[in-house]
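Feature request disguised as a bug report, sorry. It would help if multi-protein outputs had a clear separator. Right now it looks like this:
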Amino acid sequence: MASVTPRRNKHGDVSWRVQFRMGQPARMKQETFAGDGAEKAARQFGGLVDRVGPEAALAVLEARNGAADGIPTLGEFTDRYLDPDSGILTGVQADTRRDYRNIATKSFVPILGDLPIDSIGKTDIGRWISWQESQESGRSKGQPISAKTVRNYHALLSAILTAAVEAGHRNDNPAQGAAMSRGRRHEAVFLSPTEFYTLLHFIPAYHRPFVRFLVLTGMRWSEATALERRDVSTTTTPSTVSVSKAWKKDNTIGPPKSEKAYRTLPLRPDLVGGLTLDGDGGSLLFQGRQNGGRLWYGPFLDRIWNTAVGKAMDAEACEAAGRQRLPRRPTPHDLRHTYASWLIAQGAPLNLVQRNLGHEKITTTVDTYGHLMPSAHADTVTALYAALPDDPLAITA
């Protein structure tokens, strides 16, 4: 760990020394900082040594010392990029801008933020990716960060570097084409009706209407938990529910994910019968049992969902209940996947599935659920026969 200490010379001037070990065998090295801002520079350098190692920290220091006047660091340009008054990043909501700032602060700025933006090369991007892929997931303690999250962080960094090119600070974007680990991701779990009823059996009675609602509407968690009683209309046949809002990451209710996420969905009569629609129309349709307010994902996942799934995957518990054991562990989001798979199994076209799920693009629906189309395999075989028919000259026995 780097040591940062002040030193006073015989003239009374104070400089700051950063000591650290480097090389094999490890030997003590030091860097001295003097003049205005010396303490801040020394502490930044010491922190960088601790985060990325002495070799990388010295490379950052050398690049910074050799930077041309007026060239911002990545950290400085990131602040400018995310500043709504700069006019660089447009067309995003305030909560999205805050999300981007949080990503930058915890992801690439600690590793690359002190580098002059014109000095960042592909090896620097690679060093950051290696560090980022070694970090722990922010959602699941003890689990590695997901490959998708790393790709999202990389996309933001790449966008910032592209903006730096457009601003004339550099000639290229070194983040483009950077290779990243494919990682391991949660594969979608499509529950059969029998498997769903096994899971539902172990869900506490209070939350069963909510779980049934998720699997019979395909709504995102943030959408379903933001619904108010007045969003359900029973004056039509069938009854419907309107999706026009969702919980955002700053714990406020705002617009749903995209324009296509605004939608109206039909409801089965038995599903409507399990809902509480009387009273204040502005009350949340699904409420936490303890607080009577918002149904929070974390507590629900830990106390309700994971407990029920654990029992649904336990052979003895399922045998005692006369239920079929779940072979795979689903997440609440897999109820959305299950909804789509049930529609497709009954012959619903993909454009209907897209509309009901609120996907912005049909390609998202096709990429996620196209393989579930009942005719997918048969159509493939038919196409292959059309491409390569039987040899008409072949000798048959």
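(second protein starts here, but nothing in the output says so)
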Amino acid sequence: MLAAGREILGITGALVYACFVSLILKLFACTIQQKFIGENLANFVSVKRMVGINSDLIKSMRLILDEPGMSYAKVAILVGGPDWPTSVLCGLMKLKLLPILLGTLPVAIIIVPTLLTGSFTYMASLELENGEKEFPWASVLGTIMAAISAMVQFSAMITAAYFLEQTSSTRGDEIAKLDVDQEVKACEDKDEEFNECYKEATKWPDLPILPKAILASAFLSMIVACYLVQLFSADCFAEYQLTYTIEEDLDGNWLNLILPLGWIAVSLFFASCGLLCVYRQWANKAAREILKTAVRPITKADCPSDEESCAGA
């Protein structure tokens, strides 16, 4: 955004504008997750499972978010908590949107240093016509802002974790009284049974030769791909900086970014992923066979109608 807005708004104006737009995007994302996912899909067990609605951590979060007013603990959760469970949980709890967005506004303390890190890094790469750096100080500021960004983000997460732990330890009785979602629990129980069977089916000494060979091949392919990229990165990918363009520096084709050795690394990576998928398919089938012999077959009637991902169904 700095590159596009510098000529119109100047450097300072472009940075302020970028910070404003980034904050709006964050609030917009929270709105989508709360209103369109959390509230509209509140009856979908799959959504509640992904949130972890029955876990003690989320129950502690529910107690904090359900408190009246805007406490420091609530702001810490809205700012430092993970986006998905926090915003979607607000929708599941039918909380009002405006207070939640107001409590999320302090996230600017995370957005600003992060954005400045990228902006200063970009400015450090700019050169004048004589080859000298246009902003020789930008590299140092970029490093400083990167350190500040890391500290701010870490502090936000630690603060949120502190209040969740405090709530869990001091309000255990209230957490225990919160309702357990029985539909989610039913699917979680089925998953637990399936996971035990999966562990049994994938014990290395008991694996047939073919699954062993597939898994070993996936493992070796990934190792070779990673080592090629780490040890021979200059031979795998063409040099490409932040200020480069595909038209001028890659002859108009982005595939020129990957050199021949790079194509080998990329091919090995995707081969590893493909082999792993094949192995997982076999392992899931083997686990279902064990499950059928251990207990009665699981049917879709065991799970809510929208939850087709229950193990063994």
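Even a blank line would do. Unrelated, but nice: The chain has two domains: 2-177, 182-302.
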